[in-house]
Design goal:
14 helices, 5-stranded mixed beta sheet, alpha+beta, globular
Length: 336
């Protein structure tokens, strides 16, 4: 298994987790509070801690969390845990966020997602939302013995490598690969136009090459389509049509369907495998894959952000958006 629970570095986070119901199949932390980032977040003191909790039974979990942490929720709490669970599962990207929460003297944001919904996203990239978070270095604090979840986490990383390969040349550096991987879940995200620093992906990757290498090293060494010269930080890839076809066939189902939709003219109804075979021989292959990714991410980011107005409440939404815009403004100042 590529992803493993953290040890001593997770003590503070585990203390925070003690304030929440315990039934978690996965809990992880991500963002600038966990891994140093370049840019506007580099010197930020006590940045907000971002957490995601994966639960087998969201209704039961929210029922217990409302008893323990009633103040964390927006006005939706008065409608009860069943409505909160419905909003979580049926709208946006299947995750329910409570932002700007004070816990143990730290400012935190935590999202709650069903185990089954996460597994589907990891395997199919139907939203590429939490699956996208898990393609970058995170700190796993809790991970159950759910073998299906563990296999899906591993498959998500392999899919990220395959997608990145399709957008890279025959020879490239580790950093170029990791930039492509880190950028997958930002491709098409409207927040990259308004609300996020435009160099966000570079700021994530640059200081964390060693963590990306730890996450993807064994996958790259075992992949028969690439020669990974780890000591030199270089990779050489099979860019033949046969190699690209194998990579396209290994992509998650939703991305394959988006590619088919882009490539298939109205009324043709071409089979997905036929489309991918044609694309493998197309010099614009990388651009089509990128368009497919953008279509997935654009839809999920818009729906999840709209949902956030209701799950966070108007006041918190305004404050949270203001913090994002302030970060973006600081990024502009640094470059000017």
């Amino acid at each position: 298994m590529v992803l493993r629970p953290v040890q001593s570095s997770g003590v503070v986070i585990r203390q925070i987790l003690s304030h929440f119901p315990e039934e978690l199949s996965l809990a992880f932390a991500y963002g600038s509070a966990i891994y140093r980032q370049a840019g506007p977040s580099a010197n930020e003191k006590n940045p907000m801690l971002d957490l995601v909790f994966t639960v087998d039974d969201p209704l039961r979990w929210h029922s217990r969390n409302l008893e323990k942490n009633w103040s964390h929720y927006s006005f939706l709490k008065v409608l009860g845990p069943r409505m909160i669970t419905t909003v979580q599962n049926n709208y946006g990207a299947g995750v329910y966020y409570n932002p700007l929460i004070k816990c143990d003297g730290r400012l935190i944001k935590y999202g709650v997602i069903s185990t089954n919904v996460l597994i589907e996203d990891l395997l199919t990239w139907n939203n590429l939302y939490i699956a996208g978070r898990l393609q970058k270095p995170v700190k796993i604090v809790t991970l159950s013995e759910n073998t299906t979840l563990k296999a899906a986490l591993d498959k998500n990383l392999k899919s990220a490598v395959n997608a990145a390969f399709l957008m890279l040349p025959e020879s490239f550096s580790e950093e170029e690969l990791f930039l492509e991987i880190a950028g997958l879940s930002y491709s098409g995200d409207f927040r990259m136009v308004v609300g996020e620093d435009k160099t966000k992906v570079l700021n994530i990757v640059k200081p964390n090459i060693v963590h990306f290498r730890w996450l993807y090293g064994s996958i790259l060494q075992e992949n028969p389509q690439v020669v990974y010269k780890m000591h030199h930080g270089r990779l050489e890839l099979d860019k033949s049509p046969e190699g690209q076809f194998a990579q396209l066939m290994a992509l998650p189902k939703t991305l394959q369907q988006q590619i088919n939709h882009i490539m298939d003219p109205p009324g043709r109804n071409r089979d997905v495998e036929e489309t991918l075979f044609k694309l493998a021989n197309d010099p614009d292959c990388s651009e089509v894959v990128r368009l497919g990714l953008s279509a997935i991410v654009r839809a999920s980011s818009v729906k999840q952000s709209t949902k956030g107005i209701f799950t966070a409440g108007m006041k918190k939404s305004v404050v949270y958006s203001s913090l994002k815009l302030y970060k973006m403004w600081r990024g502009w100042l640094r470059k000017s």
